[in-house]
Task: inverse folding
């Protein structure tokens, strides 16, 4: 039967014939159409494949072969040459490279970025006082919107034949930057440590104006290591905080901050003092603002570090945590002293700092044996701290570690009879360096749940502030200076 002899029935909605034979024919036509489309697609694919570079993808790179021979692709393959691109990763705004031209240079000024202003100062006191000086420097940088450039610590408490130690080798500078949220750099970031180039710099002299007895800027040994030759310009006498107190050398942060800005700077330019080596007279540098000494600086009153509102502590020094390596080293000393072995955790402890060595100079007419506090005063304060920790934290602390500059063996025997512990530093300087006895002691003092210190000692002040703010710990300070000074 021919196709034309079918009786076609029309679907009223779709308008095409509805028969089983016609449906079969339509299905065959669809199959032929699909085959044709597939064939055409395959021809196009072959054409494109032969005219485009072939790229072989791998899910993962092959394992490195120990053989020195390398497999080469077949010669008939065309390996695409992907052009190299220079992807420059912007440094973090807190990274030194964000505020410098690059790595340290032979001349410090070559590394200063034109759009950035800096501030620096020099150490010249005991180590703890230098820590406070550098915290003051950073705080002054915050309020003047300048990048602090911190020099190394000089070994005033260690011996001048010992090399300085960098700030960042003691304090965790990356962590400090994150916590403060501002860039803070060191001189070793700016200038090569092995540079032999002596450079001139103009600075403000604060020391000469703060006390009538001071006839020249504050000296410092660090300039010899930084290869800097400073020309100082004396600040005006009005920088002194208390004009009526002859022997108080304090000034204030905002008084000194004024010299960071053109108006006060230009009004107070006087003839600079020639630099000691090159005899060059330079006005205070406008990009690298510097002062000779920043220890005696306050916001509201002299020696305010022991106040809970202390700006230098709250905004800077509480964020100056020890480097992880220094903390780990100090912990090893603690565990050895306590006899802790294996994986047992380090128990909580109370640390004591007894300052004796140079305080007898402050005793005046009072005999030293009546002036310096005796051990029973420390025993009483330790007991109070133990009770407070138990009440606040529910923890009984029985380990007590004593740090002191006391040399008398009989005194240390009394310490041992109390059941208190002493850190063995007999090999510390040999194994780790001359700086480390004092550094390890400072870390230990700051690491306990409680602390008992010596009144008027800056080392004790920083220790109790760390214990209180870092660990929520308790503290007491033992008074001294006369018989019964700590009675209460």
Result:
């Amino acid at each position: 039967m021919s196709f034309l002899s079918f009786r076609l029935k029309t679907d009223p909605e779709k308008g095409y014939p509805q028969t089983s034979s016609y449906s079969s024919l339509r299905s065959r036509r669809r199959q032929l159409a699909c085959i044709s489309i597939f064939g055409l697609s395959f021809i196009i694919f072959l054409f494109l494949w032969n005219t485009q570079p072939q790229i072989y993808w791998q899910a993962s790179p092959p394992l490195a072969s120990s053989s020195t021979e390398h497999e080469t692709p077949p010669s008939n393959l065309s390996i695409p040459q992907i052009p190299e691109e220079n992807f420059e990763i912007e440094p973090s705004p807190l990274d030194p490279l964000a505020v410098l031209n690059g790595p340290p240079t032979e001349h410090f000024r070559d590394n200063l970025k034109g759009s950035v202003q800096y501030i620096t100062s020099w150490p010249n006191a005991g180590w703890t006082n230098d820590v406070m000086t550098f915290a003051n420097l950073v705080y002054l940088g915050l309020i003047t919107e300048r990048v602090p450039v911190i020099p190394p610590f000089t070994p005033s408490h260690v011996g001048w034949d010992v090399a300085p130690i960098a700030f960042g080798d003691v304090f965790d500078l990356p962590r400090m930057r994150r916590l403060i949220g501002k860039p803070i750099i060191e001189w070793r970031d700016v200038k090569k440590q092995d540079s032999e180039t002596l450079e001139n710099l103009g600075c403000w002299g604060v020391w000469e104006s703060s006390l009538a007895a001071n006839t020249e800027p504050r000296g410092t040994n660090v300039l010899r290591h930084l290869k800097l030759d400073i020309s100082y310009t004396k600040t005006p006498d009005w920088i002194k905080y208390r004009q009526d107190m002859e022997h108080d050398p304090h000034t204030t942060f905002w008084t000194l901050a004024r010299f960071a800005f053109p108006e006060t700077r230009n009004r107070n330019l006087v003839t600079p003092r020639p630099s000691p080596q090159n005899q060059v007279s330079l006005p205070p540098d406008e990009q690298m603002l510097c002062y000779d000494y920043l220890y005696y600086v306050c916001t509201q009153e002299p020696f305010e570090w022991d106040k809970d509102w202390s700006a230098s502590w709250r905004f800077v020094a509480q964020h100056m945590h020890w480097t992880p390596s220094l903390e780990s080293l100090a912990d090893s000393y603690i565990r050895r002293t306590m006899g802790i072995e294996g994986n047992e955790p380090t128990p909580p402890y109370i640390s004591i700092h007894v300052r004796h060595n140079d305080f007898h100079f402050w005793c005046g007419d009072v005999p030293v044996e009546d002036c310096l506090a005796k051990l029973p005063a420390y025993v009483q304060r330790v007991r109070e701290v133990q009770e407070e920790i138990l009440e606040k934290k529910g923890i009984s602390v029985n380990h007590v570690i004593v740090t002191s500059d006391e040399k008398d063996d009989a005194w240390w025997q009394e310490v041992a009879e109390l059941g208190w512990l002493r850190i063995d530093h007999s090999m510390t300087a040999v194994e780790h360096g001359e700086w480390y006895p004092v550094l390890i002691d400072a870390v230990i003092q700051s690491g306990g749940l409680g602390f008992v210190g010596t009144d008027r000692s800056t080392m004790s002040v920083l220790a109790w502030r760390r214990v209180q703010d870092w660990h929520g710990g308790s503290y007491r300070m033992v008074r001294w200076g006369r018989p019964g000074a700590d009675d209460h």
